[in-house]
Amino acid sequence: MTLVVATFYKFVRLLDAAEKQSPLLLQCQSQDVKGTILLAEEGINGTIAGAREAIDAVLSFLRSDPQLTDLEHKESFADVQPFDRMKVRLKAEIVTIGVPEADPNAQVGTYIDPHDWNAVISDPDVTVIDTRNEYEVSIGSFRDAENPHTRSFRQFPDYVRTHLDPAKQKKVALFCTGGIRCEKASAFMLAQGFEEVYHLQGGILKYLEEVPPDESLWEGECFVFDQRVAVQHGLVPGTYAMCRSCGHPISEADKASPAYEDGIACPYCVDQLTEVKRDRREDLSVGTLQVASLQTKPAS
Question: Does 254 have pLDDT greater than 70?
């Protein structure tokens, strides 16, 4: 059965976020939907997967809240459930940047429709910035976009302060996976004095869904935060796997590297592999194989 993977977020004042947690979790569990939903006073952010009817039921439940009636979502599809369980968590932020002036409920940049995005980023006066982290950028990005080389979104404000200048970068275009990080990044940059800040509405995922490959300026694949690892144009599953030791996306070429040992290390984490870590990961790999073997045996 094909499963629907729905992603959504909305910045909205949810002063009763804690009261929403349990009812929302119960609703998802009753529909056998799995994934993660984050709730905070600044809004909601989630990715869930389940049968068509189940996803529709959860989205209807969310939109029955007067504050979420216009909640938008994006869909892709998976042949197997990409999540192990359902979690509804309370957080200080629905996407963590760590600076109070990054408040999309107060101000936000100009949304750019995916079909208009090529024209914006092709303008030589526009500085195009990928707001994602290094491991995400490494497998795909927009042509000629700047890579901040961040390890976490918390480092983005320091990148702006040290590498960008409102007096020099008059026009800035930001993009991220689904659009949520760009909302915070644009709010922060506006607070820092940048005058024209654009961001891709719906993020890379919406662009890959709507813009034909022969018109696309996207190069590579887009990392996603579930067991699909990456998607391509049309949101079909990509070619990357994930290192079970460090979580970095790995290609077939990475798997062919002498540094790659399944469940032990890959070219991106082998330098940090100590004997203690090797022993621990070997034990975990053996345990995983034993559990898989037991699960394939018929019940007695």
Answer: yes
Residue 50 pLDDT > 60, yes or no? yes
Between CA 166 and CA 69 the distance in angstroms is 36
Task: Provide the pLDDT for residue 290.
Answer: 36
CB 100, CB 50: distance < 8 Å: no
The residues annotated as belonging to the active site are: 176
Amino acid identity, residue 160?
V
Question: Coil, strand or helix: which one is 105?
Answer: coil
DSSP reduced 3-state for 184: helix
In angstroms, what CA-CA distances link 269 with 199, 229, 240, 285, 288? 33, 17, 16, 17, 21
Which whole-number Å values give the CA distances from 118 to 2, 115, 152, 195, 262, in the listed order?
A: 32, 7, 27, 21, 39
- Give the pair of three-digit tokens for residue 123: 């303008």
Exposed / middle / buried, residue 155 (Cβ in 10 Å: 0-12, 13-18, 19+):
middle
